[in-house]
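Supplementary Data S3. Sequence and structure tokens for construct A.
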Amino acid sequence: PAVAMEAFAARNFVEKGQKPSGKAFIEFDTVEFAARVNVFYEERLAAGEDPLKPGYAPFCKHLFVPNFVPGLQDTVLLITDANAALLKSEYAARTEKELPVLGRWFPKDAVREHIVEARFLDVILYSREQIIEENKAMGEPDDGVRAPWGIVSVKPQGVDTEIPMEPITMMRNALGVELGGSGVPMVREEYTKSVEFWNKHGRVQ
């Protein structure tokens, strides 16, 4: 297959029948998920379309797939006077080896009545070469997977276009692979666009 599920993204999944909690919020089998993504990818290629859309660096691509996960909700919410006080913040790392950074989000339980089911999945892919480089820098063993693209994140959303990367993620990436980033320098114009969007929206988790 062209696309494989990476451990970094798999941590966001729980098996069917188990209760989603914390970072694990996608109730779907990871093997079946990757299989469906590959089917969509191959169908788009067969139709003469390049399904991979450019990401923030040459090694990053987006695959916008119609949402096939039952009940999976949008993870972006507009900030209003009524819900702004519900926002939470914390210094946190996505893995034990990453540098903790400041994040901000809406607790899902607090805004559940205001979020809707996602229409699309932004399946974020890294090239195999980049995944190997980052795993090596973080001291992770080579898992032997050689699919050219690996799923590193899945973002349920309402549109089939890229939502700006959060400012703190841009900062983390610029820190370098040794601290959990990707080593891609920050671009001021893209950072400004991100700030404009995320000043008005919050992540739901």
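Construct B, processed identically:
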Amino acid sequence: MADTCVSKYCNAGWVEVLSHMSPYGYANFGVAFGLGLSVVGAAWGIWLTGSSLVGAAVKAPRIRSKNLISVIFCEATAIYGVIMAIILTNKIKTPEKATFYLDNDWDWNGFYYAGYGMFSAGLSVGLTNIASGVSVGIAGSSCAIADAQDSSLFVKILIVEIFASALGIFGIIVGIIQSNACTFPIAALQ
């Protein structure tokens, strides 16, 4: 390491990078992670369910239409991410005075609290929707294979799939609770 950066624009490490990032950046990353990870969870679940559905439908073509409910449950996890992204995006407000520097009496604690809170809300929704999408996909895959063998098993396994889908609902509820107190200040403290 002969060429160490000595300029004032160099970062000492990741701690400095993350601690100097704008709260707006954290809030927008929360929106991105909530939406992006929810879509990944939905895609993963659809991949798991769809591949088993197509394979089992070769043996029993009657299962094709009624087992599409599993794909719909997987798609719901992406919709939960979209809902949370809309909620979080509506909470991101710019200051009243758009200047390069904020006032000295600016509510810095509220500013950072809002950014970190929205990041954690988006991340928790995204991660629970990955878990929900995968679990719904596995349950849907089992449902398609079991239904191809014995049609009386469809409703029994569908109930398990509904419980797996509830993970996504729990995630969005937790995300809404986390983001309730997150409001960006728009003016200096009075």
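The radius of gyration is 23 Å. The mean pLDDT is 87.
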